[in-house]
Write a structure and sequence with these properties.
- Helix 1 packs across helix 2 and helix 4 crosses helix 6.
- The chain has 2 domains: 72 residues, no CATH class; 95 residues, Helicase, Ruva Protein, domain 3, CATH 1.10.8.
- The protein has a 3-stranded mixed β-sheet with strand order 1-2-3.
- The chain contains 8 helices and 3 strands; from the N terminus they run H-H-H-H-H-E-H-H-E-H-E.
- The chain is 45% helix and 8% strand.
- The chain is mainly α and 174 residues long.
Length: 174
Amino acid sequence: NILFICGGSFDGLTDIISRREGKAEIGFTKANKRPLSESGASLDLLRPEDLIEFGFIPELVGRLPVISTLGTLNEEALYKVLTEPKNSLIKQYKKLFRMEGINLEFRKAALDEIIAQAMERKAGARALRAVMEEAMMDIMYQIPEMDTVDKIIITKKVIKDGSKPLYRYRRKSA
């Protein structure tokens, strides 16, 4: 026995379902059509032939006896994914910076901007990593040269515009 679990964000799948559901509708019956929301509410109408049209090979689809769908993650869920797990992205970055002797802080507005950009990409929690990588890449390369920096504060502008973060420097001992 083999269990197949296919997870991901299948952009365009709802369009395939919409076309299939709308094929036989003409005239007044079209008004009775179930509403298809952007949140993926139409995914409960998913059929194996939709997956094949999407690009899955029929041999794989034939091995999927039960097809279940999950709803799109909202801002609150993405915030939890970003901050709460033991190995969340925020905690991973803080640990990396701590290994270099630098405390890393994310302002709430920066976290909100990360989530907003991830929502725009419509790729679920995977988009969080992409947004973080883009914002943090240059900063991470500069860390070894930051002997006097004690703390780096990530603001909304860092995430949105690629601005420089705020730096707090170590006090020189007399």
